[in-house]
Write the structure tokens for this entry.
Amino acid sequence: MIRVVSTCDIVGIVAVHQEAFPGFFMTKMGKAFLRAYYGIVLEYEKRIFLVSEDDKGEINGFVCGVRDPAVFYEIFARMKKKLFWPTLIALLKNPFLFRDILLSKRRVQNVSKTDDVSDSIIELTSIGVSKRVQGRGIGKELTLAFLDAARMTNARAVQLTTDRDDNETVNRFYQRIGFSLRREMTRPNGRNMNEYIYELK
């Protein structure tokens, strides 16, 4: 079953995130940071945030995104109190995260200042499926449900970014659903990304 997220789902969402994205920057930032991040998304008025749960009521996947990403990232950049302790804890556990934290902060600030993102755009920021149910079509169901929810907002399009390298399965997944490659880009940390867009009908 796919439904709208509630506050009590955050712990389960964080568990799925950590399982689905081992070794990624936000996963390395730890549970406290992830709880704070997804809490901020949940508080954002123009969000789309859905979970998939099994017949036992356990969360096995999620998808989230925000309309008017520039506004969301501006709000996120101002959440210093909420993010201070989770960030400090992550740095104490792994000081090598310092450079990635600075790069991430710079990227958030740049997005929040851009005039290139319209209020008619929804950014799909994160989608994750538990390894125990991967291959059962849950990721596709979540993505299609997200697109349906986006249509209900009268937005023009949905955009997302994903890794370009060593990520063929994910790139093909979005292309099969109907996302079109908008541009290729390289982030300051050298990570090559593909940006996709889905024009809502």
About this structure: The mean pLDDT is 91.
